[in-house]
Records
---
Amino acid sequence: MDSFSTLIRTASHEQHVEAETSTFMSDLLGGRLGVDAYARYTEQLWFVYEALEAAAGRLASDPVAGPFVRPELLRLPSLERDLAHLRGPGWRAALTPLPATEAYAARVRECAEEWPAGYVAHHYTRYLGDLSGGQIIRGKAEKTWGFERKGDGVRFYVFEGIANPAAFKREYRELLDGVRADDLEKQRIVAECKRAFALNTAVFQGLGEEFPLSAA
Ligand code: HEM
């Protein structure tokens, strides 16, 4: 039987392709959208990471979610620096979630409060993605909008505390393989991971509607 880390990756593969090739992502990474679209996207990430990381302290001692909670992953301080750069010092006052973002953050909070294994699904979907494809997004963003390499605007993608992302991802997969859950619960985690991908795709859909290419 495949390991749990392989199972969760394989099970979400199709939705990964869908998210990756969404119109908004394709346009953003294809250099067809302005920096405003990138800023709006970064704002949406703020709501998602606020939900993920507000719960981190409490979940650190949880037997299931606890091992995944690592200070070197925390993204909120970097996101806030990026937003200050992108939007200016008043960034917080102008920050608004899309309806899809609100739904996504609400589901993360719900899992964090009621179902730590479900929180792990959301944790995996975001942080392992950021450590992987996030690096591609950073490179494109630097090139397209002229951010300093690994500097303000793209700090969200820079994990200062992780010297070797490949090794970190290997260890993370080992944590997944050792997750304290029976087979049925593992199936539920996989289903939640798919839901997490769908929530991300819905945010891209909302952003795509706000930034149609004809208006870019
Ligand atoms: C254009 C956007 C994206 C690109 C180019 C991209 C690219 C990649 C690449 C190349 C990997 C493989 C890394 C490896 O094997 O070590 C990866 C893994 C991953 N990506 Fe993405 N990705 C994108 C968007 C997303 C989104 C929107 C999500 C979900 C929010 C996501 C979640 C993940 C996850 C969870 C993994 C880890 C899979 C695993 O090894 O278990 N990605 N991505």
---
Amino acid sequence: MRMTMTMRLAAIAAFTSLGMGTATADHHNGEDQQQAHQHDMSGHAAEAATDQPAADPHAMHKNMMHSSEVKVVHTAYDLPAVSLTNEAGQSVALQEILGQDRAVVVNFIFTTCTTICPVMTSTMLQLQKVLKDDASQPYYVSISIDPDYDSAEVMRKYAARYGADWTFLTGTSEDITTTLQALDAYRGNKVNHFALTLMRAANQSEWTRVEGLGSAQELADIWHATAM
Ligand SMILES: [Cu+2]
């Protein structure tokens, strides 16, 4: 079971390696730039991102390394005063939904994604299960990076399909862009999306930023380490 999931993650990562490389290329972190350069130098990244990524015999191996590359950063964000729309179609203030009085875990998805978003949604479901006996429960939120397509109704159906009972947010493209930029989750185009989970314990100003497709257990460990 565990093995199967790992293999699946690696296979999915193979489909997205160029996207992730592109996403990190315009990141200002030196390490990321170096990583992006390595992708370019390898000459395999382009192959891995075509319609036939499995044709690259090294894709599986490379991306198994990828899937264990979870980068954790602690940082503060200023939440913009925008109102988004939840899956029930209600208007909600971002500053309230991610209010400092509550512990939150946030990821970024779009419903038509066939690569990393399904994995991230499944991981969030798993994370909920792993943390279910904790005294303090985080408030889970998924924010759409494709608000033009992801209406409240589309988000509601997506949540139902996964049996996900947390908050799914969409909004006008302007408000979503403002939100994503404030959380350093904006990459210009949904195709450039990357795996990102943000966590913040209650009454803390600092966020824990997790980049990469971590397993639910990895995310739970990071949560426990930071949300004390
Ligand atoms: Cu996706």
